[in-house]
Design brief:
The complex is a heterodimer of chains A (about 170) and B (about 500).
Chain A (H helix, E strand, L loop, with lengths): L3 H15 L12 E4 L4 E3 H4 L4 E7 L4 H17 L4 E7 L9 H7 L6 E3 L4 H5 L7 E5 L5 E6 L5 H16 L1
Parallel strand pairs in A: 3-4, 4-5
Antiparallel strand pairs in A: 1-2, 1-5, 3-6, 6-7
Chain B lengths: L1 H17 L5 E14 L8 E14 L2 E12 L7 E12 L3 E8 L2 E2 L5 E2 L1 E8 L8 E5 L1 E10 L2 E10 L17 E12 L2 E14 L2 E2 L5 E13 L2 E11 L14 E11 L2 E11 L20 H5 L8 E12 L5 E10 L9 E14 L2 E12 L4 E14 L4 E14 L3 E15 L3 E10 L12 E13 L2 E10 L2 E5 L2 E5 L2 E11 L1
Antiparallel strand pairs in B: 1-2, 1-31, 2-3, 3-4, 4-5, 5-10, 6-7, 8-9, 10-11, 11-12, 12-13, 13-14, 13-15, 15-16, 16-17, 17-18, 18-19, 19-20, 20-21, 21-22, 22-23, 23-24, 24-25, 25-26, 26-27, 27-28, 28-31, 29-30
Classes of the chains: A alpha/beta (about 170), B mainly beta (about 500).
Chain lengths: ~170, ~500
């Protein structure tokens, strides 16, 4: 639909426009619905020091296995400026199950529904589960793919290191 | 094509250099090398290299994305390609989002349109033997306007037919479905109502059949009814001057979906109902909720029921209960009926129960039982059971998985056979893992020569030198067949040989 000339024009326009703008806020401005039915951006719910995004889905076995451990970490760090956010990537096939399974698992941190893979693509996620830690300005400081038992120890020490860097 | 490729690479590299420190430039790469073939084909060993590079640049409200795919097989010169398969320009603000290029979007819950990507998946069909990224995108533009709860979304573009490889582009139209749609919704408190109008033109080789495009109308409601109860309902149908809107008889084309979910303390429930009739649109551009459980267990995932959108109705119920010690029960049941003709009306039915528990502080386990019947594929009875156990050692973790499935298939005679799956994995968290996998089938369809069974042994190792690189090595024989991933079901080819995959992000 778009020919080579259209692509060239778009990129040229972009080159001009970027010169007038300031720092990227990328993922922080993506607006998603949470499981309580409210629309929020990461900017509105991010942590004071760090935001930990957990990309997961109901059909993903290691994702479900990781959630109770992430819940423990969330409780441990919530008073230290760290906010955990679950980013659910279920398609319409499974979206109806997200709220009941989240509640049944006792997840207390926010869960956002990324049904159209908007944040998923924005963060270049390629597999589930993926855990990404962001600075308040949206800078990605840590990425962790997959989950096997013991990973929570590594994630915890990485959060502690990042908090120590801030001090 | 080549000029566009060079242009985008040049611009992205220049951008990253010129604007270093001012914007965010990121990327990821997936490279996979294969040495082997389908187990039944000769030569036994042939090689291929597939690479997918994703580049992303963000600067304030603007974004540029590009995907470059390359494929170099040792066989068939006509099967190789290098191309910019996706590029997107985006502008995002509080009021307005604009995207131009290759988009992923959906209307409602996908009854009329859903484009998607299966992350990390490489698609290959037996007919073409060309490997390419598994995504069904829309090439065109999308504009979304948000103001005080009012959302307008306008889309125009052509949907990719993922079953056709990129090498066929000059001979066949890979994007035969042109879609124009407007979705309007209004949010109040935790609820929203809206409608969708869609025009669908099926383009043929001679030119678009614009004289009589198909038109569709859909209404939806999405909201929290009470604190613990939410509801989504959508009714979509084709607008046909000859058939009244209220007519839902044989000749009408419609799709209806309603889903409730509910929780109380540690108990959660999801209840869904579907009714699809004459609702297979274009080359498969719509993807209504299937209401069939997407299993993570290997044997069950392969035995999934794929909805027949020409006529299917049914329900799905899923219940969760978590106990105080962290153990969890999951129960699922689903039923789907296809009215193919007066005489043939197969009914799919499945019951699944899973228990996840922690026998000790160092151990976690899951067990399941499953029963299903799927007369649509002649499976009159299907039983399965299995589970896994994780055992944490001092520095490593062991995982043992076992599954058994017994199927009674009725064709001219009744075939009874079993499938077995066994794996043992030893892993060090975030560093490496070594798995041995053994699949054994007595399925007559899967047995060749004069053997009584077919065996699929494999060794899989992963190594992560750091959080940005991951290396996966597969050696052995992999069983193909239907597979479901990220809500989408498709066919995977068998493979025998060596496969090396490198995932990188930067």
């Amino acid at each position: 639909m778009l020919g080579a000339s259209s692509a060239k024009t778009l990129f040229s326009i972009s080159l001009m426009l970027v010169g007038w703008q300031s720092l990227s806020q990328g993922a922080l401005n993506v607006e998603l619905k949470n499981i309580e039915g409210k629309y929020v951006t990461l900017h509105q719910i991010k942590g004071e020091k760090l935001t930990v995004l957990d990309f997961w889905a109901t059909w993903c076995k290691p994702c479900i296995k990781a959630i109770p451990e992430l819940e423990k970490l969330s409780n441990e760090f919530e008073d230290k400026g760290v906010r955990f956010v679950g980013i659910n990537n279920d398609s319409p096939r499974n979206i109806s199950k997200v709220r009941p399974i989240s509640k049944s698992l006792g997840m207390t941190y926010p869960v956002l529904l990324d049904t159209e893979q908007e944040l998923f693509n924005e963060m270049l996620v390629v597999s589930l589960p993926t855990l990404i830690i962001l600075r308040p300005d949206g800078e990605v400081v840590y990425t962790h793919e997959g989950y096997s038992r013991g990973d929570e120890v590594l994630i915890k020490s990485r959060i502690e290191e990042l908090l120590a860097d801030d001090e | 094509m080549m000029s566009r490729y060079v242009l985008v690479i040049f611009l992205l590299i220049t951008l990253s250099q010129l604007l270093n420190g001012q914007g965010i430039f990121r990327g990821s790469n997936l490279m996979e090398f294969q040495l082997g073939n389908l187990p039944t084909l000769n030569p036994e060993y042939q090689s291929s290299l597939y690479d997918q590079l994703n580049l992303s640049y963000r600067y304030n409200v603007f974004g540029l994305d590009a995907r470059i795919e390359q494929y170099y097989p040792s066989f068939g010169e006509e099967s190789d390609y290098r191309k910019i398969s996706q590029y997107t320009f985006q502008y995002k603000s509080d009021l307005l989002d604009i995207e131009v290029g290759n988009l992923y979007t959906s209307l409602g819950r996908g009854l009329l349109l859903r484009t998607y990507e299966i992350p990390g998946s490489i698609w290959e069909t037996r007919g073409y033997r060309v490997r390419y990224g598994f995504y069904r995108d829309l090439l065109g533009a999308s504009v979304k306007f948000n103001y005080k709860g009012l959302e307008l979304k306008a889309i125009r573009g052509e949907v990719l037919d993922v079953t056709l490889p990129p090498t066929i582009e000059e001979d066949l139209d890979r994007r035969p479905d042109l879609v124009e749609a407007l979705q309007t919704s209004y949010r109040f408190n935790s609820q929203s109502v809206g409608f969708i109008l869609m025009r669908h033109v099926v383009e043929n080789q001679a030119g678009p059949n614009a004289e009589r495009p198909d038109k569709y109308l859909s209404f939806f409601y999405d909201g929290v009814l009470f604190d613990k109860l939410t509801l989504y309902g959508e009714l979509a149908r084709q607008l046909d001057g000859e058939i009244p809107l209220t007519n839902f008889t044989e000749s009408a084309s419609y799709g209806g979906y309603v889903g409730f979910n509910f929780y109380l303390l540690n108990f959660g429930a999801s209840l869904e109902y579907k009714d699809y009739h004459n609702f297979s649109l274009g080359t498969g551009m719509n993807d209504p909720p299937t209401l069939i459980k997407e299993h993570s267990y290997r044997t069950l995932n392969r035995s999934t029921h794929v909805p027949v959108l020409t006529d299917e109705n049914g329900y799905q119920v899923e219940l969760y209960m978590t106990l105080e010690n962290g153990s969890m029960f999951t129960f699922n049941t689903s039923r789907s009926k296809n009215e193919i003709s007066e005489e043939r009306q197969p009914v799919f039915q499945e019951y699944f129960l899973e228990y996840q528990f922690y026998p000790s502080e160092q151990t976690s386990a899951k067990v399941f039982v499953d029963y299903a019947k799927d007369p649509f594929v002649n499976e009159v009875n299907r039983y399965a059971t299995g589970g896994y156990i994780d055992l944490q050692h001092k520095k490593l973790t062991s995982t043992v998985e076992f599954e058994w499935q017994h199927i009674e298939r009725e064709t001219n005679v009744i075939d009874e056979f079993s499938n077995y799956y066994f794996s043992y994995t030893l892993s060090k968290a975030s560093k490496y893992s070594i798995s041995t996998v053994l699949e054994l089938t007595y399925d007559p369809i899967q047995i060749f020569d004069s053997k009584q069974y077919n065996l699929y042994p494999a060794l899989i190792t992963t190594y992560q030198p750091n959080s940005k690189n991951k290396l996966t090595l597969f050696y052995g024989k992999r069983r193909g067949g239907p597979a479901c991933n990220s809500g989408v079901c498709y066919d995977v080819l068998d493979f025998k040989g060596l496969e090396l995959r490198l995932n990188t992000r930067f």
